[in-house]
């Protein structure tokens, strides 16, 4: 699939308030992923984290896509936590999980 973006000099610019809201939402999602990760007995799978977030009422999600527009933000936060805990990514039975332990 190809996407062509045509920009004109007089095109509207992104609103500063919208940019601030987007950054605040990304930070809030990162904090919530961290809370879910640290509160569990063992590291939850990324799917579990996503399902938990999907069941919560999160304000300022993008219209039309909601939480699914933020999959990359959630996965990045999860990945950082997994790496910080010395874990590694595994994909057993199509569920992404972070397994802690030796990386070798």
TrEMBL record:
Residues 2-78 form the Protein serine/threonine phosphatase 2C C-terminal domain. It is an enzyme of class 3 (hydrolase). SUPFAM superfamilies: Protein serine/threonine phosphatase 2C, C-terminal domain. It catalyses: O-phospho-L-threonyl-[protein] + H2O = L-threonyl-[protein] + phosphate. InterPro entries: PP2C_C, PP2C_C_sf. Its cofactor is Mn(2+). It comes from the Eukaryota. The keyword Nucleotide-binding does not apply. Pfam families: PP2C_C. Keywords: Hydrolase, Magnesium, Manganese, Metal-binding, Protein phosphatase. The keyword Magnesium applies. Its EC number is 3.1.3.16. This is protein-serine/threonine phosphatase. The gene is PPM1N.
């Amino acid at each position: 699939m190809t996407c062509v973006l045509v920009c004109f000099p007089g095109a509207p610019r992104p609103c500063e308030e919208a940019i601030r809201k987007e950054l605040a939402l990304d930070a809030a999602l990162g904090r919530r992923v961290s809370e879910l990760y640290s509160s569990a007995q063992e590291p939850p799978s990324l799917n579990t984290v996503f399902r938990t977030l999907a069941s919560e009422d999160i304000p300022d999600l993008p219209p039309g896509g909601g939480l699914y527009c933020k999959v990359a933000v959630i996965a990045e936060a999860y990945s950082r936590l997994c790496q910080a805990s010395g874990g590694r990514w595994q994909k057993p039975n199509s569920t992404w999980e972070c397994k802690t332990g030796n990386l070798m």
